Amino acid sequence: MPHITRRTAGLAGLVLAPFWIAIVILVTSLEWDYLHSLGWSLTTETEVNYPSATLRGDFGLVQTLSFVITGLLGGVFTVGLRREFRHWISGWVATAGLGLFSVGMLLSAVPGDLPPYEPASWHGTMHDFGFMCFVLSMLVGYSASGLALRGNPAWRGWRLLGWTPLVLAAVAFTNAGLPGDLGFCLFLALGLSWYTVMGGRLFALDRETNAHRRSQLPEAAAPGLL
Predict the structure, then answer these.
(1) What is the largest CA-CA distance in the chain?
(2) Overall pTM > 0.70
(3) Could you report the per-residue pLDDT of 139-197, keeping only the tens digit for each?
(4) Residue 118: per-residue pLDDT
(5) How far is CA 167 from the centre of its chain?
(6) What is the structure's pLDDT at 214?
(7) What pLDDT, on the 0 to 100 scale, is given for residue 216?
(8) Spatial CB neighbours of 1, under 8 Å, sequence gap ≥ 6
């Protein structure tokens, strides 16, 4: 496996959330009539699982690819971030937890069921299991990462993002007071934004390191006159 640099891992984390959210918005707009034919509405409580239902529409392949690519981006980011950890046990837990994100995204690429229209199926169960992995990865991976980054001065303050699961739990239980699926969309956006913030920090550290190395290089001697 080729070496994944800080820069590569940081970029993967930076683009992860914007990429996935942009594709969801795009596919939702393209399948707007299809989603409403299922009885779905963004601001009304329904039994339709959104955005999973977009996988069953005419542009479902686009959404499937977005799940796969996002899972791969998460894996690249995790490989880069784990080298920043300073504690073995919490680092191992964080790596495994963040790894569940990639597993969850890949499993979620399989189309789910459409309640109340369809009975449970094997692919629907696989999709649901993927979502469980996704949620578990946020609860475990984020908090364990905060613990594993202790002792790394470059991440002082940033590791406090390990408290992110508390914010996500508050949104999940209260729906942030928003109607319909708006609260769930906020939950997803906040959860994925963790990757954007941490990826941005990883990318910034790479630039700082490279700038420091360049400053340490001896100045080239001026060419002599012939």
Answers:
(1) 87
(2) yes
(3) 999 999 999 999 999 999 999 999 999 999 999 999 999 999 999 999 999 999 999 99
(4) 79
(5) 16
(6) 66
(7) 67
(8) none
72 within 8 A of 91, measured Cβ to Cβ = no
- Are the CB atoms for 165 and 184 separated by under 8 Å? no
pLDDT value for 208: 85
Distance CA 26, CA 35 (A): 13
Residue 35 in contact with residue 50, Cβ under 8 Å?
yes
Type of residue at 206:
D
Per-residue pLDDT at 224: 42
Residues 6+ apart with CB under 8 A from 103: 71, 130, 133
Tokens of 188: 């997803």
Judge whether 113 and 107 are in contact, CB under 8 Å.
Answer: no
